[in-house]
Specification:
The protein has helices at about 20-30, 110-125, 140-150, 175-180, 185-190, 205-215, 225-230, 240-245, 280-290, 315-325, 340-350, 365-375, 390-400, 410-415, 440-455, 455-470, 475-490, and strands at about 1-5, 35-40, 55-65, 70-80, 85-90, 130-135, 160-165, 175, 205, 215-220, 250, 300-305, 330-335, 360-365, 380, 400-405, 430-435. It is of the alpha/beta class and about 500 residues long. The strands form three sheets. The protein has a nine-stranded mixed beta sheet, sandwiched between helices.
C-alpha cells in the first residue's frame, strides 16, 4: 500500500511533542510491514537539519494557488533516519516557516492552511497518487476538506483520508479569510453547522471539525480517550461532531520505539538490563544518584518526567515532591514549565530544596538524563488532568519503573492497578492507578507503592518485572492502522 503522511512534525527532525514521535514511529512500522510510506512536512528554518540525510531539491517549481494568485515553492527531499521526507519551502514575504519556531505565531491558522494546500498541490502536480493520505491534528484538518471539495475533481478522486487527533485542546480556528486564501470560497456553504462551522462560534471555522467531517476515518491516540472525547468535556466542544461521525471514529493506542527506549540496548545508561537480569537496574540507580548528587542510601526513588503545566496535573506533581520526602523516599524531577507563573514557582521550590540530599529538580529538558532517570528510578508518577495517550508510563514500564498514574485517557489502557484491577489476574497487573484530582487520591496510590517497596521488596520487583514484559511497541497499532486503511480503501 502507498501511504503519505502529512503532518507538522516528525521526530527527530521536527519535534515539539508526542506528535512527532507518532509520525516517525508509525511510518517506520508501516514500512517494516512492506508498505511504501512518504512524509510531507513544512521546511522550518529551525528544524534539526543534522537529522536529514541527502537533502536536495526534488520539485523546483511548485506553484500553490493562494488568494486568487499563486505562491512559488520548492520541495526538498531527504531521509530522516530511514524515512523518506518531503519538505515544502514557500518563497513568500509571509515567511510562513521562517519564524524560528514551529508554533505560537498569531497567524498559525493561515500558515498551516497554506501548508495543507501546498501538500495537496504537491501530490497533484507530481502525479503522486497514494492509496491513503494520513494527516494529523488541526494543522492538517483542511486536507480532507480540500481533497473532497477541490482536488477530487482534478484527478485525485481515489485517495482516501485517515485523520488522527492527538490533542483536542488545539483545534485551529479561522474565518472567511481561510476560505478566500485556499480557494474554498463559498462562505454560506462552509459556515453550515454540518460542515466547518465551529460548534459554539457561528462566526468561526474549525479546522479540526473539518477534518472529522470530511475524512474517511478518524482516530485518536487511545481507546479510552476516544470514549472521553465523545462523552465528556475532554472533546473540547467537539463531542456532538464525534457522535455524529461515530461510525468512523475510534481510538488506537500509540506505540513507543523500542529501538530507542529499551534498557537492554540503551546507550545513554551505564548498565543495560532486561527483565531476566533485573538486578542490574540498581547500578543505574547508583549512577543517577551520583549524577544528581543525591544521598546514596537504601530508599526508593520516585520520578516525574514531562511538561509542568495544568494538563499534566502540576499541582499534584508539586504535592508528590513533599509527600515522597515525608514517606522516607527520594524524588527526581525533569521538566520544563510552559507558563511563567509555573516556572517561577518551581524555580522557587528548586532553590528552597537545593540542600536536601533526597531531592533534585532539573528544570528544562535533557534527553540523555531522561534515559538515566527512567533506568534509575523505582517509580514514576503521571498525575495528568487529561492524557490522550501518554508515553511516559509506557517507557517507565519498559525500564521496570513502576508507574503511578491517574485513571484518564491512555493511562487507563496501559496501567493496571496491582491491588484493585479486577479485569486482570495479579500476574498481569503492572502499576498503581488513582482517579480523583485531590492530594489524598495521589497519596493513597503513592503510599501503596512506597510501602510495597519497603515492606515486600520481592513483590515490588515482581510487579516491576511484570510491567517490563508488556509490549507497547508499534507492532499492534501498526496492524490496526493497516486494517483501517484497508477498510476505507474498499468501503468508500
Amino acid at each position: 500500500m502507498y501511504i503519505v503522511q502529512i503532518a507538522s512534525e516528525c521526530a527527530p527532525v521536527i519535534k515539539a511533542g508526542g506528535l512527532g514521535d507518532v509520525v516517525y514511529g508509525l511510518s517506520r512500522e508501516l514500512e517494516i510491514r512492506g508498505n511504501c510510506v512518504e512524509i510531507i512536512l513544512p521546511k522550518y528554518d529551525c528544524m534539526r537539519y543534522d537529522h536529514v540525510w541527502g537533502l536536495h531539491e526534488a520539485f523546483l517549481n511548485l506553484w500553490v494557488p493562494w488568494y486568487g494568485a499563486a505562491i512559488h515553492c520548492s520541495v526538498y527531499c531527504g531521509w530522516v533516519h530511514g524515512r523518506l521526507c518531503y519538505f515544502i519551502e514557500p518563497h513568500s514575504e509571509d515567511n510562513f516557516f521562517n519564524r524560528g519556531c514551529y508554533y505560537g505565531c498569531d497567524d498559525d491558522n493561515i500558515r498551516f492552511a497554506f501548508f495543507s494546500k501546498a501538500a495537496l498541490e504537491f501530490l497533484l502536480q507530481s502525479n503522486k497518487r497514494p492509496d491513503i493520505i494520513h494527516c494529523h491534528d488541526w494543522q492538517t484538518g483542511l486536507v480532507p476538506v480540500m481533497l473532497s471539495e477541490i482536488y477530487k475533481y482534478h484527478g485525485m478522486e481515489h485517495q482516501r483520508v485517515c485523520y488522527t487527533i492527538h490533542n483536542f485542546k488545539h483545534q485551529g480556528i479561522g474565518g472567511i479569510q481561510t476560505l478566500l486564501a485556499t480557494g474554498l470560497n463559498q462562505a454560506a456553504y462552509y459556515f453550515q453547522y454540518d460542515k466547518l462551522r465551529d460548534n459554539f462560534n457561528p462566526f468561526a471555522l474549525n479546522y479540526m471539525k473539518g477534518g472529522i467531517v470530511y475524512s474517511n476515518a478518524v482516530t485518536t491516540v487511545s481507546p479510552n480517550h476516544a470514549l472521553e472525547a465523545s462523552t465528556t468535556d475532554v472533546g473540547c466542544g467537539l463531542g456532538h461532531t464525534l457522535y455524529s461521525q461515530r461510525d468512523k471514529f475510534q481510538g488506537i493506542l500509540n506505540g513507543i520505539d523500542y529501538d530507542f527506549w529499551n534498557p537492554e540496548i540503551d546507550r545513554h545508561i551505564p548498565d543495560n538490563y532486561s527483565h531476566d537480569d533485573f538486578a542490574q537496574k540498581i547500578y543505574n540507580k547508583k549512577a543517577l544518584r551520583e549524577r544528581l548528587m543525591l544521598h546514596q542510601t537504601d530508599k526508593p526513588i520516585v520520578a516525574y518526567i514531562g511538561r509542568l503545566d495544568n494538563q499534566k496535573g502540576v499541582h499534584l506533581v508539586h504535592h508528590a515532591i513533599y509527600h515522597t520526602l515525608n514517606k522516607g523516599a527520594q524524588f527526581v524531577l525533569l521538566g520544563s514549565a510552559t507558563e511563567p507563573g509555573i516556572n517561577a514557582h518551581f524555580r522557587h521550590e528548586k532553590q528552597f530544596l537545593n540542600d536536601n540530599p533526597d531531592v533534585h529538580l532539573e528544570l528544562g529538558f535533557n534527553e540523555e538524563l531522561s534515559h538515566l532517570i527512567y533506568a534509575g528510578a523505582d517509580m514514576i508518577i503521571v498525575p495528568s488532568n487529561y492524557e490522550p495517550c501518554g508515553l511516559t508510563q509506557m517507557i517507565g514500564l519498559k525500564y521496570g519503573t513502576v508507574p503511578i498514574v491517574r485513571g484518564v485517557g491512555g493511562l487507563v489502557n496501559t496501567v493496571f492497578d496491582r491491588d484493585y484491577d479486577q479485569n486482570l489476574p495479579p500476574e498481569k497487573r503492572n502499576g498503581y492507578v488513582f482517579y480523583d484530582t485531590d492530594n489524598y487520591a495521589l497519596e493513597s496510590a503513592m503510599n501503596r507503592a512506597i510501602d510495597l517497596w519497603y515492606q515486600s521488596p520481592a513483590e515490588f520487583r515482581k510487579l516491576a518485572i511484570q510491567g517490563m514484559k508488556y509490549d507497547y511497541s508499534w507492532n499492534t497499532p501498526g496492524a490496526e492502522y493497516l486494517d483501517i486503511y484497508d477498510w476505507i480503501k474498499h468501503k468508500w
